[in-house]
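Translate sequence into structure tokens.
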Amino acid sequence: MPGGKPAVIEAEGNTLVPEPALEAAHRRVRMILCVGLGGMLLLMLAAGADAVRVLHGIREQGEFIRADALARTGTLVSIRTKLLLSDTFVRDYLLDPDENRSAEHSRELRRVWADLEHGLDAYTATPNANEAEMAARLRRKIERYWESISPTLTWSNRERRASGLAFYSSAVLPSRLSVLEITTEIDDAHSRQVADGESRMAAGFGNLRTEFLWMFVLSLGVATILAIGSAIYISRLEMETRRRYEQVAAARVEMGELSQRLVAAQEQERKSISRELHDEVGQSLNALLVDAGNLQKRIPESDAQSRELLNSIRRLADTSVNEIRDIALLLRPSMLDDLGLTAAIQWQAREVSRRTGLAVKVSAEAVADDLPEGPSICLYRIAQEALQNVTRHAQAKTVQIELKQILNRLVLRVQDDGIGFDAENVRGLGTVGMEERLRQFGGLLRVTSEPGAGTAIVAEVPLPPPGALAGS
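Result follows.
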């Protein structure tokens, strides 16, 4: 499709699918996978962020509950302490006979009472309705307690000695006991509040576990869906790849069979052309030479110009006969069929040496004369191609050709001392042709070369067992 967009062949139907459409399909698949993975990661990140938020809230709530409980407990302890101090100062004030010390006790009592009222103001500012009601009861009882003892602060020394002990026993002690009972109730309420806070924290942790569980289940579901989708898609890709591989393998088999048929047809055509040149054209030229010789006898000696033209025709015909013979031998040497592979390779080596001046040495070891036609032609063409490459590219001076038969394998080695090349990165059409010929017979080709170190080509082809040759 010159000037158009590249296209690929679809797996089914051999229809052409535009390359942009295939690339768009791949992009959609990659986008789906990215969205699925990204969604799962975002879900996990959201779950982690929400868990951190809940944990932070639970920790703040727990710290607030503990701090508030400690502060209110401290305030309650301070109130209880102030009540005990006030009771002590009242008792000392009422029972101490020394008027100066009694006045000191009265001043300490007023100071402690002021602190007690300040603590009551802080304690009654509570958001808990039940605790606020108990705090109000505590305030009322403490106020009644203060109202019961405040008149004694104006008593004279004689009144305190006369009525102090009786007043303390009848008025102060009962009020103090009721106040202490209320503080005990409030302390119990604080304990319940702390327990309630701990239960709320436990409930928060339970909710967090539930959220984690749901988030885990959701993430697991998304991951499962993504994994199933990926598995299905990968299975489809695997099936598609298998179908394409089978098609490629079948195409390679077909190409191999086609190449084999083409090579066989080429060899048959070469054989036919060689025979035609040798039999038809060669015989015609030989007949021309015979007729020219007969004609020369009829031309008088005095006709020098006619004799010269006739000699030119005979020389041209003789040259044509030699050239046709060489072409016929190059196309298909008759000695390959008559004398065998070794003789054909030796003749090829002599011809290359004669034309190019290259020193070509051939050695053959234990090679049978009755080799199968297919492997013989294959190795002969490989030797011919290798010598042609040496004369064109190697700039070599000598070439060593070794032909040997090892059990049921025929091995050909062509070694030159030329400039060599990078065999790992350079691969010409000649090498591809050699490999294709050897592949038809299950053979192997090894090319070893380095720049400046010459080139070695080793071709191995298996031979059928003797029974198969006899049967064929």
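Note: The chain has two domains: 20-226, 334-471.
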